[in-house]
Design brief:
Layout: H1 3-19, H2 25-34, H3 39-59, H4 65-72, E1 78-85, H5 88-98, E2 106-114, E3 117-128, E4 133-141, E5 144-153, H6 163-166, E6 172-173, H7 191-211
Antiparallel strand pairs: 1-2, 2-3, 3-4, 4-5, 5-6
Helix pairs in contact: 2-3, 5-7
């Protein structure tokens, strides 16, 4: 099999891992098996796989980050997104200040503006709950957590925290080290989800304090 074919498959796999991180083991197996096919069939196979997985990927998305930003700041706001690659020093500093393990050096930050005025930020945190990931957007303005929104939840929906539970994440300073069962009560039957969201808040706070606070 030519190097170009293997590279093409590698790029597709990297795409899903980087931006969704929720591929099932069965889907990964399909990609690997695709290496056995001839070159002329590769594009068709990958395109079919993309269409098949799209419904699975997006079926777990509850709201788009752009819509969530507008709903929380201003429906007429302009929302910009930026992927930030942390340096080694910033990665270590944020991990230390968050008292939580970082799974990646790449984070996406959303900025809501209107009439050239910054309304606030949204920091997207993607963390594993059990075997799959949950994506949460933390809305922060002037070093205060205003709210959170669960963007995607890939575990069974019975484990998703309720809106009422999520409402506890409001008007909290970004120098606060939130801890489950101390500052935030757990959720019966969804303890791992609650811990993921709570730990994620500390990561979002640390990212904000390191990269955005005072700017």
């Amino acid at each position: 099999m030519g190097k170009q074919i293997k590279l093409q498959v590698y790029l597709w796999v990297s795409f899903f891992k980087t931006f969704h991180n929720i591929l099932s083991s069965r889907a990964s197996l399909v990609i690997i098996c695709a290496l056995k096919y001839k070159r002329q069939n590769m594009n068709k196979i990958l395109f079919t796989l993309l269409l098949t997985l799209s419904s699975q990927l997006w079926a777990q998305v509850l709201i788009s980050p752009i819509d969530a930003m507008k709903e929380n700041y201003d429906l007429n706001a302009t929302v910009m997104k930026k992927n930030v690659l942390l340096s080694k020093a910033k990665f270590q500093n944020i991990q230390k200040n968050a008292a939580a393990k970082l799974d990646t050096k790449i984070y996406r930050i959303y900025t809501a503006t209107r009439a050239d005025k910054v309304l606030g930020y949204g920091i997207l945190i993607n963390r594993k709950v059990r075997s799959k990931n949950t994506v949460v957007l933390y809305f922060i303005k002037d070093a205060i957590l205003l709210n959170i929104e669960i963007i995607a939840f890939n575990e069974p929906l019975e484990y998703i925290p309720t809106k009422k539970w999520n409402s506890q994440f409001k008007n909290i300073k970004t120098d606060t080290m939130l801890q489950l069962n101390r500052d935030i009560p757990s959720v019966t039957g969804a303890t791992m989800s609650a811990r993921s969201v709570t730990d994620g808040s500390r990561i979002a706070f640390a990212i904000y304090n390191e990269l955005l606070k005072g700017k």
